[in-house]
Amino acid sequence: MRLFTAILLYRLLLPLLFLAAFPGWLLKMLRRGGCSTRLGERVAFYSAARHDEPQGAVHIHAISVGESLLALKLIRAWLARDPGQRFVLATGTATGHAVASAAAIPDLRVTYAPLDFPSMVRRYLKRFSPSQIVLIEGEAWPYLLFACQNRRIPVTLVNARISPKSARRFHRFAAWVRPVFSLLDAVAIQEPEDALFWQNLGVDPGRIDHTGSLKFDPDGGARPARRPEFQHMLDFFGMNRPVILAASTHAGEDAWIASAIRAAIPAALPVIVPRHAERRAAVKWDLEREGFSVIVRSKFPDALEVGMPANLPQVFLIDSTGELSDWTAHADVVIIGKSFFSQGGQNPTEAILANKPLICGPHMENFEPLVSRLTASLGCLRVHDSSGLSEAILHALDPEFAASITRNAADVLVRHAGATQRILTLLASHPCPRK
Question: What is the pTM of this model?
Answer without folding.
Answer: 0.84
